[in-house]
């Protein structure tokens, strides 16, 4: 494991975001295993919230899908979210993400398209659409 991945892993344990991610995974009866780059994969999550193919809390990437789903572009996208938790000092990331999702909803009607966290994690790799801002749509029509 590279030094930066180890640092992210340690920071996210200390800031309590990874322990929260593990608690969420266990509550959702997901199977947790070690993954790449210091991440933990939680497959088979059974709670229907949040509505996403996968989501990350700390270094824990959670999905309702079976093993083999967390690969390639999606895994890179989710790994960037793990890094965002480290930079946002852990749990404040949850509030900041909700505020950013609300901002995006106001701007374009979709929670991810203008969400800075999703944009920095790469919208395309996360499978999100790129909706134009509401004021931009009016000028295009």
Keywords:
141 residues, alpha+beta, four-stranded mixed beta sheet, 7 helices, 4 strands, globular
Q: Can you put this structure into words, describing what you see?
A:
The chain has 141 residues and is α+β, with helices and mostly antiparallel strands. It has 7 helices and 4 strands. The chain has helices spanning 3-14, 17-27, 72-87, 92-108, 116-120, 123-126, 134-140, and strands at 31-34, 40-43, 55-57, 60-62. A 4-stranded mixed sheet has the order 1-2-4-3. A hairpin with a 5-residue loop joins strand 1 and strand 2. Helix 1 (3-14) crosses helix 3. The longest helix has 17 residues, at 92-108. It is globular.
Quick overview of this protein structure:
The protein is α+β, with helices and mostly antiparallel strands. The protein has helices at 3-14, 17-27, 72-87, 92-108, 116-120, 123-126, 134-140; strands at residues 31-34, 40-43, 55-57, 60-62.
Topology:
Layout: H1 3-14, H2 17-27, E1 31-34, E2 40-43, E3 55-57, E4 60-62, H3 72-87, H4 92-108, H5 116-120, H6 123-126, H7 134-140
Parallel strand pairs: 2-4
Antiparallel strand pairs: 1-2, 3-4
Helix pairs in contact: 1-3
Roughly how many Å apart are the termini? 50 Å
Helix vs. strand class? alpha+beta
Helix coverage percent: 40-55%
Averaged pLDDT: 95
Low-confidence stretches: none
Main β-sheet, in a few words? 4 strands, mixed
Shape: globular
Helix tally?
7
| Major beta sheet, strand line-up | 1-2-4-3
SSE ordering: HHEEEEHHHHH
How much of the sequence is in beta strands? 5-15%
- Tally the beta strands: 4
Task: Provide the gyration radius in Å.
Answer: 15 Å
């Amino acid at each position: 494991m590279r030094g930066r991945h180890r640092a992210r892993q340690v920071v996210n344990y200390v800031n309590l975001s990874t322990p929260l991610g593990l608690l969420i995974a266990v509550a959702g009866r997901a199977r947790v295993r070690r993954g790449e780059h210091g991440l933990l994969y939680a497959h088979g999550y059974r709670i229907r919230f949040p509505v996403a193919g996968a989501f990350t809390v700390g270094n824990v990437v959670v999905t309702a899908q079976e093993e083999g789903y967390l690969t390639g572009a999606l895994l890179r996208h989710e790994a960037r979210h793990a890094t965002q938790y480290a930079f946002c000092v852990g749990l404040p990331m949850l509030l900041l993400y909700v505020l950013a999702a609300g901002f995006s909803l106001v701007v374009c009607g979709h929670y991810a398209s203008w969400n800075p966290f999703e944009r920095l994690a790469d919208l395309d790799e996360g499978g999100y659409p790129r909706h134009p801002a509401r004021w931009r749509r009016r000028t295009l029509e």
